[in-house]
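Hi R.,

As promised on Friday, here is the backbone we talked about, encoded as C-alpha cells. Could you run it through your design pipeline when you get a chance and send me back a sequence?
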C-alpha cells in the first residue's frame, strides 16, 4: 500500500481580532463596575490595662477621638486634615453638635506620642466635656 506523502499542508491562521475585541470589552466592563473604597479608619493598637471598667451597654451618642501611632487624629471615624488643636477642637464641636454633656472617648495607639494625647484632652477640656474615657484593652492573664 502506497501513501502519498508529498501532499501540501495548509497553513492555518487563527484570527485574533475578535478575541482582542472581547478582551477589551471585558476590561472596560471590569473598570466601570469596580468600586474603589477609601479607608478612613486609623489602625490603632490600644495599650493594655490590668483594671478595666466596661462602658455602659445602653450608651447612646458619644464622641470618639482616635489617635494613630504617628499622632494623626480621627473624630468619629472622620480623618482630620491637620493635627493641631484648632482643627481638633472644631471637629469635636461639630461631632458633638454643641452638646458638651456627651461622653468623650480617647483611643490612642500604644506608641502615640504623649503630646498628641494631651492635646486631645486639652481640646476636650477647653470645650467643656466632663465625661472623658481613655480606651484600653484588658491585659492578658499572667502578663505583668
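Update: got your reply. Pasting your designed sequence below so it's all in one thread:
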Amino acid at each position: 500500500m502506497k501513501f502519498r506523502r508529498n501532499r501540501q499542508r495548509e497553513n492555518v491562521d487563527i484570527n485574533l481580532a475578535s478575541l482582542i475585541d472581547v478582551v477589551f470589552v471585558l476590561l472596560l466592563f471590569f473598570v466601570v463596575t469596580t468600586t474603589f473604597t477609601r479607608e478612613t479608619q486609623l489602625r490603632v493598637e490600644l495599650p493594655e490595662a490590668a483594671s478595666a471598667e466596661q462602658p455602659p451597654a445602653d450608651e447612646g451618642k458619644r464622641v470618639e477621638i482616635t489617635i494613630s501611632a504617628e499622632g494623626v487624629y480621627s473624630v468619629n471615624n472622620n480623618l482630620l486634615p491637620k493635627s493641631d488643636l484648632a482643627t481638633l477642637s472644631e471637629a469635636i464641636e461639630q461631632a458633638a453638635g454643641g452638646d458638651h454633656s456627651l461622653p468623650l472617648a480617647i483611643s490612642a495607639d500604644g506608641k502615640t506620642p504623649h503630646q498628641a494625647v494631651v492635646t486631645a484632652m486639652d481640646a476636650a477640656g477647653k470645650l467643656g466635656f466632663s465625661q472623658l474615657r481613655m480606651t484600653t484593652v484588658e491585659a492578658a492573664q499572667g502578663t505583668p
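One thing I noticed while checking it: The domain at 48-138 is CATH 3.30.420.270 (Nucleotidyltransferase; domain 5).

Thanks again,
M.
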